[in-house]
Design goal:
Elements: H1 2-11, E1 14-15, H2 26-39, H3 46-58, H4 65-78, H5 100-114, H6 118-125, H7 131-150, E2 159-160
Parallel strand pairs: 1-2
Helix pairs in contact: 2-3, 4-7, 5-6, 5-7
């Protein structure tokens, strides 16, 4: 209770896990949508690459695609969490729910936009990806945050109430990824 009270007094309120996709601000919706489209891109899904690149471009983030793709590839391969995202299709029942990896990504990029400190970056991600992943993702995620910021796509800083559907253990990296 004291921890929560400290967070509320010093950093603002913690965002409840009941927050849904449509409750997010546009920059947050854009990033979550991009994550969800990216997870559906297979080796032969060139049209989804085009849709993702075009969507970011139409939102004003023309230069964000390469850094986004690099960041997502590294996170997908080095995550200690099951890589599960909601569905980008607004008609799907899994559209509204926000998954842990989506919240962590939003939190990390928003903090990098407000501070270029490497400490901020490591604090948000180091428990959720491997050490190798931390080293590899360092530059692309900072460049992504900067590219989005320069494109006037600024994510609000939120202290997410992170819920995990697995018991986290650094030694037990999931053997498979779960996609919706």
């Amino acid at each position: 209770v004291l921890f929560l009270l400290h967070k509320i007094i010093n950093k603002g309120s913690i965002v409840k896990s009941t927050l849904k996709f449509l409750d997010l601000e546009f920059p947050e919706q854009l990033i979550v949508w991009a994550m969800r489209v990216w997870t559906r891109i297979g080796d032969e899904e060139a049209s989804l690459h085009y849709i993702l690149r075009d969507g970011l471009s139409k939102a004003g983030a023309t230069n964000a695609y390469i850094d986004f793709d690099s960041t997502m590839t590294i996170l997908n391969e080095t995550s200690l969490l099951p890589y599960r995202t909601g569905c980008p299709d607004g008609c799907c029942e899994n559209f509204q729910h926000l998954c842990a990896i989506e919240k962590i990504f939003l939190m990390t990029v928003s903090r990098l936009q407000s501070s270029s400190s490497i400490r901020v970056f490591h604090t948000n991600l180091n428990r959720f990806i491997t050490q190798k992943g931390m080293h590899l993702v360092d530059e692309p995620i900072k460049q992504l945050a900067d590219s989005l910021y320069k494109s006037n796509i600024r994510l609000p800083i939120k202290d997410w109430d992170l819920e995990f559907d697995i018991e986290y253990s650094g030694e037990n990296m999931p053997q498979h990824r779960t996609f919706h």
